[in-house]
Amino acid sequence: MSNDLLEIVLLSLRVSGFALLISALAGIPVGAFLGLRRFPGRRLLVATLYTGMGFPPVVIGLFVYLLLARSGPLSSLNLPFLPALFTPGAMILAQSIIAFPLIAGFSMAAVMAVDPQVRLQVRSLGATDRQAALTILSEARLGVLVSLIAGFGGIISEVGAVMLVGGNIEGRTRVLTTAIVLETRKGNFELALALGFVLLGLTFVANLAMLRLQGKSIDE
Amino acid sequence: MSSPVYRIRNLVKAYNGRRVLQVDHLDVQRGEAFAIVGPSGAGKSTLLRLLNFLEPPTEGQIFFDETEFSAVREVPVENRRRVTTVFQRPMLLNRSVWGNVHYGLGLRGQRNAADKTSAALEVVGLAALASQPARTLSGGEAQRVALARAIALEPEVLLLDEPSANLDPYNIGLIEATVQALNREKQVTLVLVTHNIFQARRLAQRLALFLDGQVIEVTGVEEFFENPSDPRTAAFVRGELIY
Q: Is position B112 within any domain?
């Protein structure tokens, strides 16, 4: 593997890995909350979440672009944690937004699929609300794992948003998907195909690793 | 005469405006074995959920010792943890047998949790299956794990909701012997909900007949079976259908 390719692979993993981490840290608790609690406005939130699950990544990329652009609404605030356009940080932000509804939505569905009697049982055994929620999440762990796999699959293979906010700058923001687009446009189909296989292999290995983390084999 | 552990006053539970339980006055004495019998839909299981503070009453109060439980007053977790329920369905968690029995102790951060877990599994005769995934057990074994999980917590009150429904005689006998020993030797208060009046007779010192969410009669076990004061109790004991 050439150094250039290795750099692209590592950046792809770094961007999508961080984005997955951020969206999981936000999405799993939100999904668990929506799955376990009933409150006014919940239906609207759930409908919004489901809409987000089907939102075109390129549109999210456009929003993030406009948000971070020099003429954007946040530019005058000079917020230190906001990344600049055409940086890996901007790509992480866009991918986090893409993965969040997938992870929250699938986590919510997984939590809701746990028998309500389990919740009664764990409360009967003395669980506090927080302990009960963590136990239900643990019972729903296979579904939560699916949410992570869906989120990761959604962002590692996404091209529109990272192209918009990253700019596909060689050595800085070029990731596997944007490199595939570039090489295809240049007519380097063999290299584009090779990059595609690397992407497929990475996705497969990452999913396998997540399954192993759960102590489950893919035969289950 | 022992003091009541529960005092139920003007208790109402309603779902979507429909009253499913209305108990004006009922006491459960500390250390007694109290059975609630009646047909399906009589409100027995609803009362048990309220006694475990799993759902709030719609109206009225349950006093657990001096702690009030009502629509506007929750029971602190320390008091809630003095009571636990074995439900008709064991609802084991997706972990090992040992992990299930250890679960409640782990929530409390108890010392000697491992010893208590092992001891509870010994009591129900399942120590050999400790490392087995709980969801691979038979129905009878699963219910014994549920019982072990409850007794490991050393509750002051053990609520039993049809704990041996659909089980074979061996497992029924084992469960009954275990809860009877808890009641007699450790003075654990038992509240048993059952369709099986023979089981109620074997285990309880007092019985209550529930019908349509209301208490029809509360009396000692001998009187309940030999000389009930309400004709509906007499009919129920004779095995007639009441509704």
A: no
Please report residues of B whose CB lies closer than 8 A to that of A138: 93-94
CB count in 10 Å sphere of residue A65: 18
The model's pTM: 0.85
Q: B158: helix, coil or strand?
A: strand
**Residue B48 belongs to a domain with what CATH number?**
3.40.50.300
**C-alpha–C-alpha distance, residues A184 and B169, integer Å:** 72
Which residue range(s) make up the domain with B23? 1-82+157-163+189-200+208-243
Residue A215, pLDDT above cutoff 70: no
Which helix (H) or strand (E) segment holds residue A203: the answer is: helix A189-213
Q: Which residues contact B9 (CB under 8 A, 6 or more apart)?
A: B24, B25, B60, B61, B62, B63
State the residue for tokens 């349950």: B62
Domain boundaries defined on chain A = 3-213
Work out the burial of residue A63: count CB atoms within 10 Å of its CB; fewer than 13 is exposed, 13-18 middle, 19 or more buried. Answer: middle
pLDDT digits (tens, 9 = 90+) for A106-132: 999 999 999 999 999 999 999 999 999
Asked if A120's CB is within 8 angstroms of B103's CB, the reply is no
Segment-wise mean pLDDT, segments of 10 residues, chain B, 243 residues: 89 95 97 95 95 97 95 94 95 96 94 94 95 93 95 97 88 94 96 93 96 95 93 89 75
Contact list in A for residue B54 (CB cut-off 8 A) is 120, 123-124
First to last CA, chain A: 34
| Structural domains in chain B (count) | 1
ipTM above 0.85, yes or no: yes
Topology, domain A3-213 = MetI-like fold (1.10.3720)
